[in-house]
Amino acid sequence: MIKVIQDDITTLKVDAIVNAANNGLLGGGGVDGAIHAAAGSQLLKFTKTLGGCETGDAKLSSGFKLPAKYIIHTVGPVWQGGVCTESELLSQCYQRSFELAYSNNIKSIAFPAISTGVYGYPKKAAAVIATNCMRQYESKFDEIIVCCFNEADVELYERLLGNSSQAA
Ligand code: ADP
Question: Is 165 a residue whose pLDDT tops 60?
Answer without folding.
Answer: no
